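Suppose a colleague, Dr. K., hands you the sequence of a protein chain of 116 amino acids and asks what its three-dimensional shape might be. Before reaching for any lab equipment, you can write down a predicted structure in token form. Begin with the sequence itself:
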Amino acid sequence: MKHMFTIRVKISTKLGMSITVSTWLDKYIKIQDERLKIGEIKLNTYKQKSAPVEAFRRECGAMELQSIGAKDVASIIEQYKERGQRRMAQVVRMVLVDVYNEAQHAGEVELGYNPA
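The predicted structure, expressed as tokens, is then:
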């Protein structure tokens, strides 16, 4: 499966298409690892991002990063609200905003594109 994602990313890049959510989240985690190492973020902040990242991967991992819309994000957040986890829903949204901000900085999505 991992090989299929790698091939898909290469093809998408050559055709000018967006990378998958799963591929971007792998890169995002590496960015967060680096930020933790240099002291830019604290360990608790780093740990707090793992559950929202995995929820996003589970729900949208095979989709193109650029094709995610506000409804996709709202669907993920709504799952937490339905379970009475309002604070966690806020954390998920905050992390997904950061995921897309980093994607903008990396040139993976257009500037200003942030469905979260």
